[in-house]
Amino acid sequence: MVEDIPRRRLLVVDDEPAFCRFVQDVAQDIDFSVEMTTTGREFMTTYTLFLPKTIVMDIVMPEIEGVELTQWLIQEGFTGKLILVTGYAPNYVAVAQRLADASAQFKAITLLKPVGIDDLEAALNET
Q1: Digit-coded pLDDT (tens) for 80-121
Q2: From residue 102, how far is each of 10, 14, 107 by CA, in Å?
């Protein structure tokens, strides 16, 4: 009998559902189990239930944006990989990147939209 190997858990938060589906499709092809959220509040709830090891997070979102969520992840003790994405504010994403780097709790990677399949796969597979 072959045991099921646990899949890598990925949580996506982006206010653009089409981008969430794109990330989900790419990630599932490389053996990730994926949960998607479109708001910061939904992200927080899903994070505590799903306990992802990898997160793809949009920086610019309504209500709770990526910098605030990065700070929240630091407080929660997240130790996985955070992939920060933005299409609007390349300088703003640097703030979240510096927060993550300063915490030294988790690895942060930045991607600029439009994100290509190869770049996303490389970021997801990077250790």
Answers
A1: 999 999 887 667 777 888 888 888 888 899 999 999 999 999
A2: 23, 24, 10
Please report the domains of the chain, with CATH numbers, ordered by start residue. 8-125 (3.40.50.2300)
Give φ, ψ of 8 to 5 degrees: -70, 135
Global confidence as pTM: 0.91
Phi and psi at 13, nearest 5°, equal -130, 115
Q: Is residue 15 within 8 Å of residue 42, measured between CB atoms? A: no
Q: How many CB atoms lie within 10 A of CB 51?
A: 11
13 DSSP β-pair partners? 37, 57
State the DSSP H helix or E strand holding residue 38, giving kind and residue range, or none if neither.
none
